[in-house]
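Check this:
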Amino acid sequence: MAESGEGLGTVPEHERILQEIQSTDTACVGPTLRSVYDDQPNAHKKFMEKLDACIRNHDKEIEKMCNFHHQGFVDAITELLKVRTDAEKLKVQVTDTNRRFQDAGKEVIVQTEDIIRCRIQQRNITTVVEKLQLCLPVLEMYSKLKEQMSAKRYYSALKTMEQLENVYFPRVSQYRFCQLMIENLPKLREDIKEVSMSDLKDFLESIRKHSDKIGETAMKQAQQQKIFSVTLQKRNNVKFGKNIYINNRSPDERNKTVLKHAFEEEDENEEEVLTVQDLVDFSPVYRCLHIYSVLGDEETFENYYRKQRKKQARLVLQPQSNMHETVDGYRRYFTQIVGFFVVEDHILHVTQGLVTRAYTDELWNMALSKIIAVLRAHSSYCTDPDLVLELKNLIVIFADTLQGYGFPVNRLFDLLFEIRDQYNETLLKKWAGVFRDIFEEDNYSPIPIVNEEEYKVIISKFPFQDSDLEKQSFPKKLPMSQSVPHIYIQVKEFIYASLKFSESLHRSSTEIDDMLRKSTNLLLTRTLSSCLLNLIRKPHIGLTELVQIIINTTHLEQACKYLEDFITNITNISQETVHTTRLYGLSTFKDARHAAEGEIYTKLNQKIDEFVQLADYDWTMSEPDGRASGYLMDLINFLRSIFQVFTHLPGKVAQTACMSACQHLSTSLMQMLLDSELKQISMGAVQQFNLDVIQCELFASSEPVPGFQGDTLQLAFIDLRQLLDLFMVWDWSTYLADYGQPASKYLRVNPNTALTLLEKVHRGMKDTSKKNNIFAQFRKNDRDKQKLIETVVKQLRSLVNGMSQHT
């Protein structure tokens, strides 16, 4: 039962396995079959039995199926056999048709192959065209690059390189020619850098050579602009009534002439206005800057350019050793500097960053210090005022030109004030020579005037007014000599020359007025004064010339106020202005006059000494000649003629000269008597000497120079008179008794003088023969007289000793 139960249990399982085998894919049968062996014992056997039973059932079903369809199969075979014949016929026909078709298709096949080959070629050509169309722009651009390099269009060439690298090369990077091109571009860039740098060097060398032409053009344009502006300003000044008289020409005439020339120059130069671009080709700088900018090496280019320009600046600022000798040397120096900075200014404004304002300011400050040092050194060698004036004009044009380009030039105008002092010094030296020549050529006599025309000519040159002289008929004489109007004219010329330097210094009229007055004061107080003093002290200048010099200085002194008016008319600054400097000509001419007066006194005394040296007294004569000595009469006649000339001098000067001459003559005569070499004097000689003194007193009493009160001039000989009276009268008792009394008759006789002369007379008495001795009769009659003289001598000595002890 148990087995039967187990057998019943396994049958459904075997059926399930069989169904899985039938329905499952062959690859998955393994697990199903494994389950047959994993079941209960004998399950395999039972499964095989079940499988056989299943196969038998299927065979039965197949057999039934075949039996069911057998008749139809037979019928189909029969039909097929029938169709076989028709199929063979059809085969023959198809074969024949195929043969004929193949024969007919051979030509088509050939043509088809040709078509296929053409299609392949066409496809290849299309591919090639496409590739060439891709490569041709690259080749064209590279060819264009080569052309640009050949044409030296380097900036365009760099742009072309950028396009090749960024646009074209990426499209054809797989081709070898592209790689060769890519490898060649860095070399081309280096070539461009070298060529552009070479062009820049050529440009720098070119502007170094042509900087003077650039500067000359810039300075010329600045000068023309300034002339035009000044001319318009002067025309406006005339319009508003500002009168400026120069060279005796009215403002209208002068400004019309200046305007005419200015406008003519403006018209002539209007078509010839050149700029720095017209004179210099800046394209190498632009190209080089653009090239280095494109190459990303702009900083290297800027550093190189600035370094080279600084070197050129140092060369430009180095002057030639003989620059100070001619104005052309200074002009060349200035034009080169202006040309240098005009180029830098142009570069500053047309480029971005190559030159900065800070760089140009630094360069200008360095250059300005060097320029000032050079000018200060070289201008110190200039001794010609015309050259100094031309230098000043060049500096002004130089400063105005650079100021127009934005460079500060205040220090240059400060330098001009230093040069102005030097200019004044050179002017003073020049005018010192002019004054010396005038004094050398002067005849030191009043100016003769023959007719009215000559008189007007003199008056137009020199402001002389004399109503009494005007009333006189021609011919007549002006009191001063020819040097006076010449000196006055030259002082005005000096003012003009000094004014020329003050022009264009951008200073006010007050400052210009002050400068003119100070320089004129220097001319009067130093130069003219020195020339006058040197003239006065010259040995060949006689008394007549000295008198004329005094007269001349008087008229020059009076003309100083006209010089002040002259400066006022030039500067339009009133003399009443608080800070206006006054001319010191009054003191100058007074000092010169005093020196001339002193020289007159000295020369007059020298002339008196010359006459006195001609004296030839016979000191042993027994009797006088009865008339004055010849030398003394000649001296008196000379003094009379000289004092006749002194009538043109101020009264005080003539009186002083006359008094000085008389006193000097008196002193000289006294010294002659008291000369230590003169040992003895006879009374005859004393009497002769007395006659000469009487002539001197007569001369003094004749009032050779008017203005003396009473016998003032005679007092010059009072010492001699009292001494001679004492000996002539032999009034020793009175002298000794009244000595020291204010009312003494012989108050001016000094005991020492009286003693010296008495001793000489005493020796003369002893050594002279009795025939010639005035005291011979006294010895015969009374020898006490001799003792009297000895007594007087002793008393005089006691007086002298008393005076020395008292002293």
Residues 1-8, 239-271, 769-782 have pLDDT under 50 and may be disordered. Strands lie at 447-449, 476-478. The CA atoms of residues 265 and 271 lie 11 Å apart.
